[in-house]
């Protein structure tokens, strides 16, 4: 069977694979949505350049290329039996999320407590659709709202997955530091396992940008709960976050005393013994 050559126009410049959801950036270059979103949003230091032209992007809006989408679909249909793997269904372009829709959901969640869970679930589905949607949620003020509602399971889950930037966390900790950290601590102490895992990671990130006063004024109860996370082994990510937070907090001498009072020595011995047993 002769190999069918895919038209260059149908290939994503990043992956060199057939595009399933072509979108165009402001430089006029078209990419597959998944690849360009990974390029723009997934790295710690977000890229703000066009991969092909290397031009700076004044904005990161992605415009669905419907014309190219239809051409790719037609080509796939015509070559369905001739090209290996072409039977894979090419998805329709994802609908563009309107920023006003996100703002409306946030306002509804704030105004009507009885509708908050429904709104949060919708915001969660929007966030999970793409990395760019997470940026839209953050710019619409979602993180500030979620931080104020963090004792809700749906809110802390969404806040965790939005992964607030360092600057945004710093603003949260500095402006509402005590209330935000106390709310996370409440979830850590009374929440379900998964919510406790989210709270642990968010606390670790928050204390990384906190000031000396907040770091040195941690209560003994905080250490008790951190050691409980280690004992319960909720998740590997939560355990790592708890250990990193303990290292950060114990750089202050007064916190070392609180850590011992909170049962730190016994908890760490148990953890080491457990690791040793698994390695035997």
Automatic annotation (TrEMBL):
Stored PANTHER family: U-BOX DOMAIN-CONTAINING PROTEIN (PTHR22849:SF11), WDSAM1 PROTEIN (PTHR22849)
GO biological process entries: protein ubiquitination
Pathway assigned in UniProt: Protein modification; protein ubiquitination
Highest taxon of the lineage: Eukaryota
Coiled-coil intervals, chain numbering: none
GO function terms (MF aspect): ubiquitin protein ligase activity
Keywords: Transferase, Ubl conjugation pathway
Chain ranges of the U-box domain: 5-82
Record EC number: 2.3.2.27
Function: Functions as an E3 ubiquitin ligase.
Substrates-to-products reaction catalysed: S-ubiquitinyl-[E2 ubiquitin-conjugating enzyme]-L-cysteine + [acceptor protein]-L-lysine = [E2 ubiquitin-conjugating enzyme]-L-cysteine + N(6)-ubiquitinyl-[acceptor protein]-L-lysine
Designated name of the protein: U-box domain-containing protein
Pfam hit, one: ARM_PUB
Enzyme class: transferase
């Amino acid at each position: 069977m002769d190999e069918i050559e895919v038209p260059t126009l149908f290939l994503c410049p990043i992956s060199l694979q057939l595009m399933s959801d072509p979108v165009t950036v402001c430089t006029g270059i078209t990419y597959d949505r998944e690849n360009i979103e990974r390029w723009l949003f997934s790295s710690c230091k977000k890229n703000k350049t066009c991969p092909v032209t290397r031009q700076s992007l004044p904005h990161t809006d992605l415009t669905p290329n419907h014309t190219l989408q239809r051409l790719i679909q037609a080509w796939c249909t015509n070559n369905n039996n001739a090209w290996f793997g072409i039977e894979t269904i090419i998805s329709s372009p994802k609908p563009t999320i309107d920023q006003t829709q996100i703002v409306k959901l946030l306002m509804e969640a704030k105004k009507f407590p009885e509708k908050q869970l429904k709104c949060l679930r919708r915001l969660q589905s929007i966030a999970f659709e793409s990395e760019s949607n997470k940026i839209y949620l953050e710019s619409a003020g979602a993180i500030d709202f979620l931080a104020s509602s963090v004792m809700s399971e749906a809110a802390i889950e969404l806040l965790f997955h939005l992964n607030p930037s360092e600057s945004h966390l710093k603003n949260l900790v500095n402006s509402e530091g005590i209330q935000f950290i106390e709310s996370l601590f409440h979830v850590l102490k009374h929440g379900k396992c998964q919510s406790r895992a989210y709270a642990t990671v968010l606390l670790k990130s928050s204390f990384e940008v906190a000031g000396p006063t907040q770091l040195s004024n941690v209560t003994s109860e905080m250490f008790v709960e951190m050691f409980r996370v280690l004992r319960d082994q909720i998740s590997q990510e939560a355990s790592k976050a708890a250990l990193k937070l303990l290292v950060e907090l114990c750089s202050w001498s007064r916190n070392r005393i609180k850590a011992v009072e909170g049962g730190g020595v016994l908890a760490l011995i148990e953890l080491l013994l457990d690791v040793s047993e698994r390695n035997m």
